[in-house]
């Protein structure tokens, strides 16, 4: 291999689409309009769309709308320049032991001369030349790796739809790994508030470590890895209550059987609770604006710090969940859960080097449109041609562990990654993957 690759633009999108299939008449069209408009306007060379909760919570009836969703992706006039498409939709809900409700769709622009997928069975790349969507259980397909997390990873809900789908791509002589992931949610606000970190943080951490280990077990040469999906990362509710409401009196609300059904937090001398918590209810009397949430709550977004091997662009958008599902309401949150940055795009060290040498943008899609309870989160990466010369350094990026210092010092740079004011230099030695023998080569 020559050690060179041409410029390529990537658009990576993660979207929990469950409510689209629960309220299709209201949400499918505006969601698809926003997606198609984004691709039509920017025409990125390669688009990866990772969906979670395909079919919705009522998937037995909701799956009937998935094919309409796919048909638009395949035939929309705005996407006519995307001549090659590959998709995987896990729709086989009858097979409970394997069902993940994940959907991954990849779009390749007609201007891309080199696009190939890795065959995990044949251990080689195959050029992509047409449009094809795989449905149902996906068992026979060898161009992806699907895994559902073991039931003991989430003992509160042993039957869940959580797992991951892995694909490997070669785009314009660049090899990248893509992982669609859906981690476990917080089942109850009442349990989340009891301790820091909550019991649910442990469930998610176990699952993500499992995914990272499975990727390592594949034994493939390291490449830029982008793992994006609904991580279900939640703000630290315990610490928020103690920091924002330090002098409140917590009063439990009991049912007839003495079970606690709610917690109410009162300021001294007041009759109205400053905060009301139930299993699926979160009502803060003094509501924060989206800007307020971003400024004041980001330091309570802690979960990713447990994975220092993963990186992320600086977050400058409001929490992606739980947005109102009411018709005509686009920028308000439901009073069900504390707003959190559940949907993320993370990457490994090789991915960080690619992003650092590129022009990158991290944002919400459809911020003023009806998109369901999750707004899609996007990472746009316009990489520059590479050669044996060292790429110029761009804004520094921090490991997730460095977010702790970042939040403590509150000195994020708006244009870069979540940094703690310290520069992380690119690796002095750059690793390439030989496309003929598929081994690592260094320059």
Describe the structure.
- The protein has 443 residues and is α+β, with helices and mostly antiparallel strands.
- It has helices spanning 18-22, 24-42, 59-62, 66-75, 189-192, 199-217, 237-244, 290-297, 349-356, 403-409; strands at 8-16, 46-52, 84-89, 103-108, 115-119, 124-127, 131-134, 145-148, 163-171, 174-182, 225-230, 249-254, 260-266, 275-278, 281-284, 343-347, 358-364, 377-383, 431-433, 440-442.
- The chain has a seven-stranded mixed sheet with strand order 7-3-4-2-1-18-17. Strands 5, 6, 8, 9, 10, 11 and 16 form a seven-stranded mixed sheet that branches.
- A hairpin with an 8-residue loop joins strand 13 (260-266) and strand 14 (275-278).
- It starts with 7 loop residues before the first strand and ends with a strand.
Question: What attributes characterize this protein structure?
Answer:
443 residues; alpha+beta; seven-stranded mixed beta sheet; 20 strands; disordered C terminus
């Amino acid at each position: 291999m020559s050690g060179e690759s041409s410029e390529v633009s990537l658009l990576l999108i993660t979207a929990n689409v469950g409510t689209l299939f629960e309220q299709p008449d209201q949400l499918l069209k505006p969601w698809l309009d926003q997606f198609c408009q984004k691709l039509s306007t920017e025409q990125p060379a390669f688009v990866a769309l990772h969906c979670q909760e395909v079919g919705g919570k009522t998937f037995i009836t909701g799956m009937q709308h998935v094919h309409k969703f796919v048909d638009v992706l395949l035939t929309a006039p705005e996407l006519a320049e995307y001549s090659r498409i590959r998709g995987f939709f896990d729709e086989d809900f009858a097979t409970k032991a394997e069902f993940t409700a994940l959907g991954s769709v990849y779009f390749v622009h007609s201007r891309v001369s080199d696009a190939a997928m890795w065959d995990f069975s044949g251990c080689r790349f195959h050029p992509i030349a047409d449009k094809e969507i795989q449905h149902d259980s996906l068992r026979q397909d060898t161009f992806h790796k699907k895994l559902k997390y073991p039931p003991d990873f989430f003992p509160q809900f042993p039957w869940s739809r959580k797992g991951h789908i892995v694909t490997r791509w070669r785009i314009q002589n660049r090899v990248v790994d893509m992982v669609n992931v859906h981690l476990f949610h917080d089942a109850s606000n009442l349990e989340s508030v009891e301790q820091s970190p909550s019991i649910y943080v442990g469930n998610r951490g176990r699952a993500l470590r499992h995914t990272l280990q499975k990727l390592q077990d594949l034994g493939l040469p390291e490449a830029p890895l982008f793992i994006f999906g609904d991580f279900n990362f939640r703000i630290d509710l315990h610490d928020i209550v103690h920091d924002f409401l330090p002098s409140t009196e917590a009063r439990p609300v009991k049912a007839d059987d003495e079970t606690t059904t709610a917690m109410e937090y009162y300021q001294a001398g007041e009759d109205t609770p400053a905060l009301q918590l139930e299993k699926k209810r979160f009502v803060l009397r003094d509501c924060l604006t989206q800007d307020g949430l971003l400024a004041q709550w980001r330091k309570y977004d802690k979960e990713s710090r447990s994975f220092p091997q993963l990186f992320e662009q600086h977050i400058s958008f409001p929490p992606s969940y739980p947005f109102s599902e009411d018709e005509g309401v686009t920028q308000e949150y439901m009073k069900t859960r504390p707003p959190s940055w559940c949907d993320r795009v993370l990457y490994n060290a090789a991915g960080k080097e690619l992003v650092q040498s590129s022009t990158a943008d991290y944002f919400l899609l459809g911020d003023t449109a009806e998109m369901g309870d999750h707004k899609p989160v996007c990472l746009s990466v316009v990489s520059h041609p590479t050669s044996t010369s060292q790429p110029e350094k761009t804004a520094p990026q921090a490991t997730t562990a460095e977010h702790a210092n970042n939040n403590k010092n509150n000195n994020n740079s708006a244009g870069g990654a979540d940094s703690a004011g310290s520069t992380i230099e690119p690796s002095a030695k750059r690793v390439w993957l030989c496309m003929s023998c598929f081994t690592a080569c260094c320059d």
